[in-house]
Specification:
Elements: E1 2-7, E2 10-21, E3 26-30, H1 35-38, H2 40-50, E4 59-65, H3 77-87, E5 99-101, E6 104-105, E7 111-112, H4 117-126, E8 131-135, H5 136-143, E9 149-152, H6 155-163, H7 194-206, E10 210-213, H8 220-230, H9 236-248, E11 263-264, H10 272-276, E12 277-278, E13 283-284, H11 286-289, E14 294-297, H12 305-310, H13 312-317, E15 319-324, E16 327-332, E17 336-341, H14 360-367, H15 372-375, E18 380-383, H16 389-393, H17 404-423
Parallel strand pairs: 3-4, 5-8, 8-9, 10-17, 10-18, 11-14, 14-17
Antiparallel strand pairs: 1-2, 2-4, 6-7, 12-13, 15-16
Helix pairs in contact: 2-3, 4-5, 7-8, 7-17
Length: 424
């Protein structure tokens, strides 16, 4: 039968082969398994015994093919357990033919969710497989890919289904989240800053990177957080792509297809692997989780230099290629980069209401944290002056008070024109 190993945002089909032969009782796993996969021997042994089946007191060899692909995680538990049960004669011949399974098992045989269920379902659809069996918590997410997805809560339910004495329910994809601003701030709440509002609309229409510079209180962060509300909803293929990324990262909300564009705002102390991706196993970073959405870097000069310079190539090529000792992975990375910064260390350079206390050397050193090639990635660079107090109280100075919904309509119209132009 089939199960799946995650490589980047892709799921690679893995064939589980089980051989039971005479000899000293031993349970051997081969095929480049990591520690989590090797530990599945104890989970599988306990689940089978606690389920009431006899565990073969012979030499058991489980091969995860292809042998050159590294296998990680606990998602192989269910497939290994079913293979052992079939080899032990507890399942009819051919019961596992054309079946794929993924899921972690508790010691009593209960199934627990795994990450990357959507990617696995897409891979199963292309294998092809007659059915994919996943834990009930992953069933709705896996059903987003189409095909036959069966939801299970216990190993006994899966065995009964394959033996023909029971039937697993077919999973139904949950309704996708509606594209709305939700708790995001609305442009109607911003007073003044007419040029900044226009820059935000132009950036949203063209997918341009935006750099906002200004003293504290000028509204840089608020403007950036208004950007997702004026962006158009994800197209169907984009929604599936973004949902698969968040599924692999274990961050798909409610297992629902994402319709709104992601907004990621990491803290300036975030490490290079957190932004670009990495770890063991390799997982996507913030620049990939913001794919097709917005990556907001507040206090840009406070980020580590190596983190900022590492963003240059992904912003240019639209992908992140990570090479590690245990393998390599390629992640998509096409977010809108929005950054905010103060003009100087104290923040009040050019402010008419506060005096700047920074020396020229301090200002030079502060600005030198951002290299020229990095600043060249920003299509729009804008200085924001603080809005006078009178503008907050005067009804005539509301910046037009257009809501995000009105602006989003114009952005969608502009993008439709561009789509038609590039199609020609």
């Amino acid at each position: 039968m089939l199960c799946f190993a995650l490589e980047g945002i892709e799921a690679v089909p893995v064939t589980v082969e089980v051989d039971v032969s005479p000899g000293i009782p031993v349970f051997e796993l081969v095929g480049l398994p990591d520690a989590a996969v090797r530990e599945s021997r104890e989970r599988v042994r306990a689940a089978i015994r606690n389920g009431g089946w006899s565990f073969p007191a012979q030499r058991i060899t489980v091969n995860l093919a292809p042998a050159y692909t590294r296998k990680g995680g606990a998602g192989f538990d269910l497939a290994i357990a079913l293979g052992v049960l079939a080899a032990g004669g507890h399942l009819p011949p051919g019961a596992l033919q054309g079946v794929a399974a993924a899921g972690e098992m508790a010691l009593d045989g209960a199934l627990r969710p795994v990450r990357g269920a959507l990617a696995m379902a897409l891979a199963a659809r292309g294998a092809p497989c007659a059915a994919l069996i996943v834990p009930a918590e992953n069933a709705g997410e896996a059903a987003l890919a189409g095909g036959t997805v069966l939801a299970a809560t216990h190993l006994a339910d899966v065995v009964a289904h394959l033996a023909g004495t029971g039937r697993l329910p077919v999973a139904v994809a949950p309704a996708s989240t509606k594209p709305s601003g939700g708790s995001l701030p609305d442009l109607a709440d911003i007073k003044g800053q007419l040029i900044a509002r226009r820059a935000l609309e132009v950036a949203a229409a063209g997918g341009h990177n935006l750099f906002l510079v200004g003293p504290p209180g000028a509204g840089k962060s608020l403007l950036a957080r208004c950007l997702p509300a004026i962006l158009p909803a994800l197209a169907p293929d984009e929604a599936l792509e973004v949902s698969r990324i968040h599924s692999v990262a274990g961050q798909l909300p409610g297992g629902r297809l994402m319709k709104t564009r992601p907004f990621r705002s990491p803290h300036h102390c975030a490490s290079r692997p957190a932004i670009l991706g990495g770890g063991s196993p390799i997982r996507p970073g913030e620049v990939t989780l913001a794919h097709r959405g917005v990556l907001f870097l507040d206090e840009l000069p406070e980020f580590a230099r190596q983190v900022l310079e590492g963003l240059r190539q992904p912003l240019e090529e639209g992908r992140v290629l990570l090479s590690r000792a245990q393998g390599s992975a390629t992640f998509p990375a096409r977010p809108m980069l929005v950054a905010a910064a103060n003009p100087c260390p104290c923040g009040y350079l050019g402010d008419s209401t506060h005096a700047c206390t920074c020396s020229s050397m301090a200002i030079t050193l502060y600005r030198s944290r951002l290299s020229g090639p990095l600043l060249d990635r920003f299509d729009i660079q804008l200085y924001l002056a603080p809005v006078p107090y009178e503008h907050f109280t005067a009804a005539s100075e509301t910046g037009g008070a257009e809501s995000s919904r009105v602006v989003r309509t114009r952005v969608e119209r502009a993008r439709a024109v561009q789509t038609a132009r590039f199609r020609e």
